[in-house]
Amino acid sequence: MHIEGVKLLLVRGDITIQDADAIVNAANSSLLGGGGVDGAIHRAGGPAILEECRKIRAAQGSCSPGNAVITSGGKLKARWVVHTVGPVWRGGDGNEDVTLANAYKNSLSRAMEVEAKTIAFPSISTGAYGYPVEKAALVAMNAISEFLSANKDSFSEIRFVLFDDRTFQAYEAAAKTIQ
Ligand code: ADP
Predict the structure, then answer these.
(1) Which domain holds residue 22?
(2) What is the pLDDT of residues 113-160, one digit of tens each?
(3) What is the CATH number of the domain that holds 65?
(4) C-alpha of residue 42 to centroid of ligand 1, in Å
């Protein structure tokens, strides 16, 4: 599939073993690690990533929902890890869709700044943060499409690495709506 002329790949699997230039972490505001995909990335990438997160936190404080920061990839195959914070789902009346779209767009901006050409995303906010996956998948596709339309030639491949069947199917359906 393609999104704004850029290759869009949806895979089932583990984001920590991807060979993209950058992978995205669904972090929390503390940037100090957590469960889910955050825990998996820090475990696989080793302590260097957390050390960089601590320095960023010391310099600029915590990372608010919708924002993103970048570190090296430590022991991962990926050269970079973009740490973004998605919204906690509170029923949809708190602009969760805008915050989630910003998490995707700011992640792409951080990766573009280091000239990453390939980037892999997990399904931000749909685990512990409770965002309904079908809704989140549509927000993700629209946000990425808007970013790529405004930033031509920025990326060669956008990959989604989805952990379970239901999540994969939701992103597949959302991707079809923008083809
Ligand atoms: P959030 O707090 O943003 O909801 P979670 O890490 O709890 O983040 O969940 C986000 C998504 O990441 C969920 O679909 C979860 O199943 C998935 N996930 C967990 N571990 C991994 C992994 N190693 N690779 C890819 N996705 C993962």
Answers:
(1) 2-178
(2) 999 999 999 999 999 999 999 999 999 999 999 999 999 999 999 999
(3) 3.40.220.10
(4) 13
